[in-house]
Prior knowledge:
With 379 residues, the protein is an alpha+beta fold. 13% of the residues lie in helices and 30% in strands.
Amino acid sequence: xxxxxxxxxxxxxxxxxxxxxxxxxxxxxxxxxxxxxxxxxxxxxxxxxxxxxxxxxxxxxxxxxxxxxxxxxxxxxxxxxxxxxxxxxxxxxxxxxxxxxxxxxxxxxxxxxxxxxxxxxxxxxxxxxxxxxxxxxxxxxxxxxxxxxxxxxxxxxxxxxxxxxxxxxxxxxxxxxxxxxxxxxxxxxxxxxxxxxxxxxxxxxxxxxxxxxxxxxxxxxxxxxxxxxxxxxxxxxxxxxxxxxxxxxxxxxxxxxxxxxxxxxxxxxxxxxxxxxxxxxxxxxxxxxxxxxxxxxxxxxxxxxxxxxxxxxxxxxxxxxxxxxxxxxxxxxxxxxxxxxxxxxxxxxxxxxxxxxxxxxxxxxxxxxxxxxxxxxxx
Length: 379
């Protein structure tokens, strides 16, 4: 079942033949079947992202609405069903990048704003072992985040600040996936209803109630998939993905965000019937100030997407779904620390407690390659 998003949500998804990209400067790598958005106001806003984000603006930023999808997908019981659904015969992957000096660094955090009280939403969740559709999961605050925010892999996740095309200061989640590349949801970057990119992107890795090991990173380039651009507001979406290329800044003796903090790998067509850790900054939990995690089995599919149990709501958009989360053990099999999904939508009925993700596919690979074509983004 699909659902048309209302324009007031300022979100939409897509299925077309091009990739939409936005550069913070007029120079852009040539690519076949791409659209360049060089609106002067968006470019000016992008170049001023860092000074735009004052402590007050960061504290008052609202969660990006996590799109709603009424109803439930179908439980996928066996690997054979999963393979038949998502054509898993071929899988493309990128390996994680562990920083040269992993672990906590002996240097002070960057204070972005004063700590806030950690509150829950008015519709606070009650403890439960499973959601209404029999998907078992566990949810918790990442602790001790005041320590883990300076350690890999936790420091490779973060909070994305931006200004929507209607002027609302908003937040999503994201993760570092290469030297300068940030992965998030397409609906955190671009509004297909108005056909405009958002602006003033700033990614804060390891965000922990106003502090971060390296502070905020501005951006140089953004891209979303054709399915997000041209899908006419249909949910679920085949490819609700987006990428940012972070601007360089010095931290821990390095100039690129991934070199300073490391990055997560990714793998296409590899999420169904997998146990994953879903990470993000949902604003219904701890005021979206502390990283949250859900551990769950992804065993339900719906159209081009998959669904898994979670309490996360708005603010969690763009958060990674990761295989084998944590510090890999010596001798651990491959596939550790690879992103296989990105938070895209939630149920219309919040009593059902689940999240949806598009399955990483060829459209994800396309925008990742476009980002990697930028100077220093992946090499």
